[in-house]
Amino acid sequence: LWRYAATLPPLDLTQATLRSTVILDRKGQLLRPFATADGRWRLPVTGAQVDPRFRAMLMAYEDRRFARHPGIDPVATLRAAGQWLAAGRIVSGGSTITMQLARLLEPREERSLSAKLKQALRALQIEHRLSKREILERYLTLAPYGGNLEGIRSASLAWFGREPRGLGVGEQALLVAL
Fold it and tell me: Helix H segments across the chain?
């Protein structure tokens, strides 16, 4: 897989850098955000701006082995495949946060095994180019939270009127579930 992934053209990471314009005061506090050209609210966020409890909940819910896998989690993939074969339908997914980032950067309408394989290969590329911190920050900026809200900071401000670090545990859990 690594060799084949290396033959693919590089993944365009510019989508991950397109963010809403923000106006800040002297102290760095948000005064006014503006939507991106395509109407999305995608506010920049760093890992330090997100409560560690949120990151822990996100990892527990989405990708428990994020820190240890190379972009693809073989254990989760085998579990999901076994459930699919036993039930005759998809019961749970095996996508990692890196695979989800690949899907956000290169969206596809089709849901097929070949699309999932390409997503896995793109995840390998992403893991080769970016650190785990960079992957998580891009995911926290691009993850959808309903409508045109993208990223934890946009969702936190829109849903609760507070920065991500100021959310309570229940609010954090709701956003993880979204």
Answer: 2-7, 52-62, 74-87, 97-105, 113-129, 132-142, 152-160, 169-177
